[in-house]
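ingest -> validate -> predict -> emit
validate: passed (alphabet ok, no gaps, 308 aa)
predict: started
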Amino acid sequence: MKNILKVLGTWKFWKEFIIMTVAMFIAAAAVYYFLLPSNLVMGSITGLSMVIASLFGLVGITVKVSVVVTIINAILLVLAWLLIGQEFGAKTVYTALVLGPMIEIWDRILPASSLMEPGQTSMMGDIWFDLLCFVLILSASQTILFHINASTGGLDILAKIVNKYLHFDIGTSVSVAGALICCTAFAVNPFRMVVIGLIGTWINGLALDYFTAGLNRRKRVCIISSQHERIRKYIIEELERGCSLYEVTGGYNGNKNVEIQTLLTQDEFANLMDFLKVNDIHGFITAGNVSEIYGDWNQKKRRKKKIS
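emit:
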């Protein structure tokens, strides 16, 4: 209990709680305004919930999709606890359970019917536009959540179970789970709608990879210069980043020199280039984008300088 109270008292907890809430509110809007009216079944728990709600409707039982979403997510969370273990994060528990209620909130504060013309069967009037809007908005929400080590739950939970017991890669697990859910739509939707859902699931993966790569992008900078010591001090003392030094030998003239390698954000790279220009420091510089970093990387803002 003491550890729980300690976590609840930190700014990091409340900041991430607010981020998760906003991200899930965005995801719920994507589902409510673009997925549900067009009756698209994507590779997600929401898509499966739409199929189940439709099957209940065929036998005269009215069930809201938001209710089915909440029930399925609750079941998946229990399975995750039993099959994956207690390490499954509390963040996913929260995000998985709030999606259904947040869809209801959107329905109450701004009904989709009030934004659609009479007889219109989708928000944008074209199923492909609805698909594109849904995928882009949902992918943005997922990217925000993944960036703070959270997820939307649902399909992610199912994918982790598939990954553990069938030994698929996690990316393959997401694709398999999504495709299986899409195929359940054959029970209530025509072939054309199911194919559109499968295409949407594929685009969702591409968009998620693109947004994630853009959010995590860093510059891998390599510099060979006779003034490498001044550059090293600037990187460490001003940019507060680490760097590696390598002794290199010129292939043309055989001269020995030092190469500096470092990882920087876009802004830090711009500051480094300004420093080199202002101080008239010459050298051979290459820079490339890096979207995946494993190991120590300072995600915090630059520390405040101590006043001497």
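Residues 164 and 293 are 24 Å apart (CA to CA).
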